[in-house]
Write a structure and sequence with these properties.
The chain is mainly beta and 89 residues long. Helix content is 9%, strand content 54%. Strands 1-2-3-5-4 form a five-stranded mixed β-barrel. Strand 4 and strand 5 form a beta hairpin. The chain is globular and about 35 Å long.
Length: 89
């Protein structure tokens, strides 16, 4: 069963092609949305030289499949960096 669009807050962690949203309660939600990483890379500079391309606080509006606990639809998001501000994507 797929739920309606939700407001999701947590930390986005991206290593290579794998993206995971770790919610504020500690639950990890894998991101299985085609084109998500491309959209993120187009709108937000990634980190260079470490293991993570992204490890930042985010607010995401999307749909999580309640059975698989995967983000299956993405509408919009904002990434927050303390010294740089906000990046909508």
């Amino acid at each position: 069963m797929i739920q309606a669009v939700q407001e999701l807050r947590g930390e986005l962690r991206v290593i290579g092609d794998n993206a995971t949203l770790v919610l504020e309660d500690g639950e990890a939600i894998a991101i299985a949305v085609p084109g998500f990483l491309e959209r993120l890379l187009d709108g937000v500079p990634c980190y260079v030289g470490g293991s993570y391309l992204y490890r930042d606080r985010v607010l995401i509006f999307g749909t999580v499949d309640s059975r698989t606990r995967l983000l299956v639809e993405f509408q919009s998001g904002t990434l927050f960096r303390e010294d740089e501000g906000e990046y909508p994507f």
